[in-house]
């Protein structure tokens, strides 16, 4: 464990001990009920609470010990630093995770440009007799490129989650754990605040559910797009119904609705992030977080524009742009903020286990 990690954990521990003595904010989110189960905080306990924290910031604006008080409590920032460090430390390989989070915009732009250029060259290997997008890139070639780019990052994420599970004391999972965790994730319960009015992400005493709704739009939009690809795969291989598909078909309806939700959600997340106080999060990785949001939005937007341009000469340029953003999103999955979804769901499952203990 690095010196930096120890320093982050020690500061979070100091603040949690003060919070645990006060307990004024125990109704805000799942962090505070979990905090009250402990008298002393092991490193794994702190990492668990850091990944339970959704950075809604309600506790900061309600805290009587926040700056300029001598205690200098800023629990959202302290937990954000530990949470960020847990991803960078546990996900393999570590140097790539730290590099993206600190220089995310540049890395994203370079990788999108590189993959777009590669795919622009690849589409010259056009399939014979293909229709739709397959006229530009053969189906088997597309699978050969994207399947490893999707599966290999999942291996990296799995390594990180295995380490996180051991660190935080995760146990054998039962159905009740999954039901509780997925219900919380589906409702974005911890972004609603203990009072149901949302969080204070927009600065000061302004409770709003805007961030919660934006996250829900992105999450459900992404799931719809993933479902679109999955359904299309089943139709292609099991039903011998290759693309292109008409507008009123399951792949198109799922993909278009998911793309619209992702564009709307990422747009609102960018607006809120620009208005928020960067000192209540991990300022060091602001660029990496913004890069990830931009990449999600760009992936959805280029997909919608590509569909609108179907049958035109613009497809030859738009297709490598869209596929380049998708490929970049896959390749950066373990190192961008997308990994937080895996860690947060794991934290919610472990939280359900601790409730039953």
Q: What proportion of the residues is helical, as a percent range?
A: 55-70%
Number of helices: 14
Q: How many strand units?
A: 0
Q: Could you list the spans in which at least 5 consecutive residues all have pLDDT below 50?
A: none
Shape: elongated
**N/C terminus separation:** 29 Å
Domain tally: 2
Strand content is under 5%
Secondary structural class: mainly alpha
Q: Quote the average pLDDT.
A: 88
Which sequence of SSEs, written as H and E, runs from N to C?
HHHHHHHHHHHHHH
Radius of gyration: 22 Å
Major sheet description: none
Keywords: Membrane, Transmembrane, Transmembrane helix
Protein name: Tricarballylate utilization 4Fe-4S protein TcuB
Transmembrane segments: 107-125, 137-161, 217-239, 291-309, 315-335
Folded structure, characterized:
InterPro entries: Citrate_utilization_prot_B, NarG-like_sf. The chain crosses the membrane at residues 107-125, 137-161, 217-239, 291-309, 315-335. Keywords: Membrane, Transmembrane, Transmembrane helix. This protein has 357 residues and is an all-alpha fold. The protein has two domains: 3-88, no CATH class; 92-356, no CATH class. 67% of the residues lie in helices and 0% in strands. The chain is built from 14 helices and no strands. The chain has helices at 3-22, 31-35, 43-52, 58-62, 75-90, 94-102, 104-122, 139-168, 175-187, 210-237, 250-275, 286-308, 315-331, 339-356. Helix 5 packs across helix 6, helix 5 (75-90) packs across helix 8 (139-168) and helix 6 (94-102) packs across helix 7. The relative contact order is 0.15.
């Amino acid at each position: 464990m690095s010196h930096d990690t120890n320093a982050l954990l020690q500061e979070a521990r100091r603040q949690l001990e003060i919070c645990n003595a006060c307990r004024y904010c125990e109704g805000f989110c799942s962090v505070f009920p979990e905090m009250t189960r402990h008298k002393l905080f092991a490193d794994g306990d702190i990492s668990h609470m850091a990944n339970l924290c959704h950075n809604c910031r309600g506790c900061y604006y309600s805290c009587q010990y926040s700056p300029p008080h001598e205690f200098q409590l800023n629990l959202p920032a302290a937990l954000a630093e530990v949470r960020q460090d847990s991803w960078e430390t546990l996900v393999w390989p570590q140097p790539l995770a730290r590099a993206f989070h600190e220089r995310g915009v540049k890395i994203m732009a370079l990788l999108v440009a590189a993959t777009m250029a590669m795919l622009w060259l690849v589409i010259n290997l056009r399939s014979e007799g293909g229709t739709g997008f397959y006229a530009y890139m053969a189906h088997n070639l597309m699978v050969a490129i994207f399947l490893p780019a999707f599966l290999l990052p999942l291996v990296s994420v799995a390594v990180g989650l295995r380490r996180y599970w051991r660190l935080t004391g995760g146990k054998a999972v039962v159905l009740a754990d999954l039901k509780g965790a997925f219900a919380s994730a589906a409702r974005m319960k911890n972004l609603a605040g203990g009072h149901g009015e949302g969080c204070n992400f927009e600065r000061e005493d302004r409770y709003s559910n805007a961030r919660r709704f934006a996250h829900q739009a992105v999450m459900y939009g992404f799931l719809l797009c993933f479902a679109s690809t999955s359904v299309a795969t089943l139709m292609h291989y099991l039903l011998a119904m290759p693309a292109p598909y008409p507008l009123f078909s399951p792949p198109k309806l799922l993909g278009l609705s998911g793309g619209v939700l992702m564009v709307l959600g990422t747009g609102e997340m960018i607006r809120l992030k620009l208005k928020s106080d960067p000192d209540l999060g991990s300022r060091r990785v602001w660029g990496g977080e913004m890069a990830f949001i931009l990449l999600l939005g760009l992936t959805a937007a280029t997909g919608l524009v590509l569909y609108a341009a179907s049958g035109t000469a613009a497809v030859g340029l738009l297709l490598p742009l869209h596929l380049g953003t998708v490929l970049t999103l896959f390749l950066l999955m373990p190192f961008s903020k997308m990994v937080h979804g895996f860690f947060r769901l794991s934290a919610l499952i472990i939280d359900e286990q601790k409730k039953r203990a």
